[in-house]
Amino acid sequence: MNTPHLAAALDLADRRVPVLPLRAGKVPFGNCPACRDNACGGRPNMKTPGPCTCPRPCHAWAAATTDPDVITGPAWAPVWKQAAAVAYHPGGIGLTVVDLDHAAAVAWARRTLPATRTVPTTRGEHWIYQGAMPSANAMRPGVDIKSTMVYARWLGPGTGTMTTLPDAVRALIVTKPSPVRPVTATVPTGSGECRHRTPAYLERGIAMAEQRITEAASAVHATVYGTFLAVLSAHGRCGCLTDAHAARLFAAAQTKGETARHCADAWSNARTALGM
Questions:
Q1: What is the dihedral of CA 65, 188, 252, 45, to 10 degrees?
Q2: CA dihedral in degrees (101, 107, 113, 116; nearest 10)?
Q3: Residue 52 CB neighbour total at 10 angstroms
Q4: 152 neighbors 132 (Cβ within 8 angstroms)
Q5: Do residues 222 and 46 lie in contact, with contact meaning Cβ atoms separated by under 8 Å?
Q6: If you average pLDDT over residues 247-270, what whole number do you get?
Q7: What's the rounded mean pLDDT across residues 115-143?
Q8: Backbone angles phi, psi at 131, to 5 degrees
Q9: How far apart are the first and last CA of the chain?
Q10: What does the alpha-carbon distance between residue 253 and residue 275 come to, in Å, rounded to a whole number?
Q11: How far is CA 119 from CA 122, 135, 144, 168, 201, in A?
Q12: Lowest pLDDT segment from 80-89, 121-130, 200-209
């Protein structure tokens, strides 16, 4: 059934924009055969992948794709009848969305940020810049940053010329040092070929993982496990991941109230799920 949302998704995918369907409330579906109706234990109310036995995270931003065979395939075909919107992964195409939730936030952006392409939303505007960065919520009242490891609703192409991501937007994210508590993790020694182009590639991955844990507003257990799984999947087999990296992730989890025991169990379970 070719619904308007499916047609929009296929059009975006044809332009190499990674997309996924959203249901009412701007939340994603469990969208692979094993995860339909959240049978895998994933969390549809989360904007990050939930714990899942699939080969890769299949929820939310991690599911965004440009493959028309996936978009129209058996996992997604039924959900387009229920879909309330289409979302896309801004960071996946090198974009950053400054999500302005109300008129006061829009007024602040007009005073503070360089003009760029804008898209009207229900209550405010999306300002879209060329360039990706870590995502973060509530950088100031009514201002969220949507880029890597999140999705944004597709609300149309917008108007205006897109501007390069300015330092004023990057500066909105302020990292506060987390108290580090003693933790123990078994880090794989690794025997595979290193896929990291530069040391900065690994550093960015760890930093984004820390941020994802720190920003979890609910279901912290699931977020911690999903983050550990993603980090080990991407960086755990080549030997570049160290005890210091694991300690950073454990520290971020503990600042959210997780115990050292739960961190160790989640790390161990993630390694087991990946066959490490």
A1: 30
A2: 70
A3: 26
A4: no
A5: yes
A6: 81
A7: 92
A8: 135, 145
A9: 42
A10: 23
A11: 10, 19, 15, 20, 31
A12: 200-209
Q: Output the pLDDT for position 182.
A: 42
Average pLDDT of the chain?
80
- Measured in residues, the chain has a length of 276
Predicted TM-score of the model (pTM)? 0.59
pLDDT in tens, 79-115: 888 899 999 999 889 999 999 999 999 999 999 999 9
Closest CA to 226 of 262, 267, 259, 196: 267
SS (H, E, C) the chain: CCCHHHHHHHHHHHCCCCEEEEECCCEECCCCHHHHHHCCCCCCCCCCCCCCCCCCCCCHHHHCECCHHHHCCCCCHHHHHCCCEEEECHHHHCEEEEEECCHHHHHHHHHHCCCCEEEECCCCEEEEEECCCECEEEEECCEEEECECCCEECCCCCECCCEECCHHHHCCCCCCCCCCCCCCCCCCCCCCCCCCCCHHHHHHHHHHHHHHHHCCCCCHHHHHHHHHHHHHHHHCCCCCCCHHHHHHHHHHHHHCCCCHHHHHHHHHHHHHHCCC
